[in-house]
Design goal:
Oligomer: single chain
Strand content: over 45%
Distance between the termini: 11 Å
Order of helices and strands: EEEEEEEEEE
Number of strands: 10
Shape: globular
Structural class: mainly beta
Largest sheet: 10 strands, antiparallel, barrel
Helix content: under 10%
Length: about 130
């Protein structure tokens, strides 16, 4: 496995409004794809990109797990302070590229909202 520090940029758009988050993290090459680890507002986040599915997990003040499989319905599981629930999630499209960095595009519907997510990671220091 190879570990690299990286800069991460996450853009999301929902119904005409968008957000941009910048952070740093670590990328690991796995047997099935890639694993990105980073912090977001004090929570630990892990994005795993594999051949058949992509999984986004967040643990801390907000606990969220989203499983993306192109053309399939899955669930988004949300839990905070002992309460948990889920929302239906449908993945319209997923695209992942490795070309001097890492680029992931996911288009999905969560509940009633159609969301476009762009995740970009660029190696900063090899270690």
């Amino acid at each position: 496995m190879c570990y690299n520090n990286c800069s991460i940029q996450i853009e999301s758009a929902v119904g005409g409004s968008g957000s941009l988050i910048k952070t740093s993290g670590r990328v690991t090459k796995t047997t099935d794809g890639y694993r990105f680890e980073y912090d977001l507002d004090g929570d630990c986040c892990v994005l795993t990109v594999g051949r058949n599915e992509t999984v986004q997990e967040r643990r801390g003040r907000q606990n969220i797990k989203l499983i993306f499989r192109k053309g399939e319905k899955t669930n988004c599981v949300i839990g905070t302070d002992g309460f948990s629930g889920s929302l239906p999630l449908f993945t319209h499209d997923i695209g992942f590229k490795v070309n001097g960095g890492y680029s992931l595009l996911i288009v999905y519907t969560l509940g009633e909202d159609k969301i476009t997510l762009k995740f970009i990671a660029k190696n900063s220091v090899k270690g």
